[in-house]
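Name: MFS transporter
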Amino acid sequence: MTVVAVMLQVYEITHDSFAVSMVAVAGLLPMIVAGLYGGMLADAFDRRVVALSAASVTFASTALLAVLTWAHVESVWWLYVLSVVNSSANSIVMATRSAIVPRLISRELLPAASALQGISFGLMVMVGPALAGILVAVSGYAWTYTIDVILMSSLFLGLWTLPSIKPEGELVRPGLKSLADGWAFLKRASNIRLQYILDITAMTFGQPIALFPAIGALLLGGGPVTTGILTAAYAVGAFTSSLFSGPIGRVRHHGLGIERAIQAYGIAMLAFGLILGAAALGWFAPPDVGPHSANVVLIVLSFIVISIAGACDNVSAIYRSTMMQAAVPDAIRGRLQGIFIVVVAGGPRIGALYVGTLATITSLWFPPLLGGILIVVIVSTLVRLNPRFRAYDAENPEP
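Structure predicted for MFS transporter:
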């Protein structure tokens, strides 16, 4: 809810898609630092305590956002600053939680656990953005942030009920040596390294979420409601693919699965660009497209292709997460998960800069169309140059 509400509020203040994209870009460097440091903390201390501490910062930043909005003293800079704090703390939470999972279940259940993560993510992002769009339109930003603060209490309940989980093996205190050990392992782990590169490629060229406020206001119509619908479409695809993900756990060649899923993601982004191009030409458009008049046909088609993209991304995420958790030793898993979170969260922020800049120079439909083509070409080339990745066997996981 907060992510979409902040994007909408920045767009309302500035009417500038580049300013919306900067919400994500501004948090990139702090998030990278927090993700890396959070991974080191997860390999040095009780992972439950680390996750709870970082979650407290996430909660406080959202609460302050609500207070400022109720007091009518919010500004673009406050939105940027609190988004940076929120994303940085959340990257520590995610890195630590991911490092915890393999300690709770057997290796055979890791694909199922990743699928359950897709279900929970799907529910969160299906309900959150759609509800944010409706709440912003009906009751304003202050109530939207306040409700999200209340809902975030469930995060503390989930973390609080975990047992104490200290890292296995040699403990290395956070610092340059700890970070160097993580990077040295990644340098040797060609399969893990390539999956990072493939994910960055997909998220850099295939993440048009920063364009959604402008698309809802200018191209497809419907305003904040359309923004919420398009954002939720990712989660609908992730949720649906997770519900039917049983066969994924029986696939042994995870590298090949990642390649195919990301290629399909690129094709879906290409289709979304074509749909937006049709909207720019006026296909199926009602008179005076805008916040109160929507191109329903093309919104439905956009929802479908973005849902397909979300499903493909989730399938790739299940394979990537399983590979990470099965092939990386526990003693270094936190640091690798920290790098992984930086990749997962950093890619979309670079992508926001890509789509925001290119859309400003050209038009709203061009970034996803070009991005889809680039994803398919780059992924196919990289995997072809690394045959060991395609041969990865989940029965004998090798990083």
